[in-house]
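mind reviewing both lines:
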Amino acid sequence: MRPSISFPLLALLAACHAEKPDWAQNGQQAAMPGAACTAVEKVVAQIRTSRGIEIADNGDATMPTAAWNMMSADQHDQLVRTIAFHAACRSGAQSDSQPVVVHSDDGTELARRAISTRVDPGELMREPSQ
């Protein structure tokens, strides 16, 4: 017996589809919130000056191998996410899969990931936990 989708589930799915925001109905991408971009750009400026990392506007970055090797896995993850959000801010649009590539100073690929840069505007309004 094949599973069937019940009528209430179909109605719920149709309702979700009907409530798309204007930008989604028009096939446009959601803009990056200015507050998020301001915060990301401050961090990118600090990274560029303190660590000697070159970060391009398209999600590519180059850094010294020694600096990468001294970083923990959490720091790698945070750096890649920061690069993704920087690229999204520069393009002006959120993405489900912003590509990021980090190369060493000798050209070796250190990391390649696709990062979601979707931002919940409600999260930006909340105060950070102390």
